[in-house]
Amino acid sequence: MAGSELPHYLKHRQRLRERFLKTGLAGFADYEVVELLLTLCIPRRDVKERAKALLARFGTLRGILDAPISELQGVSGIGEVRPVALRIIREAANLYLQQKAENAPVLASAESLKAFWRSRLGSIPNEIFEVAYLDSAYRLMRNGVETLEEGTVDRAAVYPRRVVEAAPRRGAAGLVVAHNHPNRDVNPSEQDKVLTKALVLATTAVQMKIVDHLIVSADSVFSFREAGLL
């Protein structure tokens, strides 16, 4: 082999990048997508076997990006720092989805909000309750998402008064509330329905509006508004 010839794995990386630039991720095998991500944080080594090892352990790209850092570090060849890089990639994607939904009327960008919360909360193993603050045109405000409660695998205690008290600090005129169901069943429980009614009453009293209540899992989203429950 000539001394100037690239190692095979660098040629492979170059081919992957060229394919990506031409077609995006269309036609890529799952392990090739993971390879592309790993090339960003493992600059001078063959990463194909590491990509396959991550998929064998966590099943999908989403499983890899949602995995706890400690579990990622337990995969051979991944090390201590690379899982942090993968977490940065995931959080950057979440920030992109949030900013994509900002400054657009919520009812016109409902799918963007659903995708944002499905990515942000869908795979978390405990219930989390969040609020999106909307301006007078019902547009998502900049940096307008706040976590109000974190709970157990099946419950997050939410108090309507806390939701109502938080909104004026942001100058909000409306709210979208969202929480996850770790059991993946996004159908609302009776408790969810009672909470939603209480939130509507509490916000109406201070001339604000609950625009929607979303229940999310990794795969789906339930909208109270679309179901006619708001």
Explain what this protein looks like in three dimensions.
By secondary structure, the chain is α+β, with helices and mostly antiparallel strands. It folds into 2 domains: 8-92, DNA polymerase, domain 1 (Orthogonal Bundle); 106-223, 3-Layer(aba) Sandwich (Cytidine Deaminase, domain 2), CATH 3.40.140.10. The chain has helices at 8-23, 30-39, 48-58, 61-66, 69-73, 82-101, 110-121, 160-170, 190-205; strands at 128-134, 140-150, 174-180, 209-216, 221-223. It has a 5-stranded mixed sheet with strand order 2-1-3-4-5, sandwiched between helices. Helix 2 (30-39) crosses helix 3 (48-58), helix 6 (82-101) packs antiparallel against helix 7 (110-121) and helix 8 crosses helix 9 (190-205).
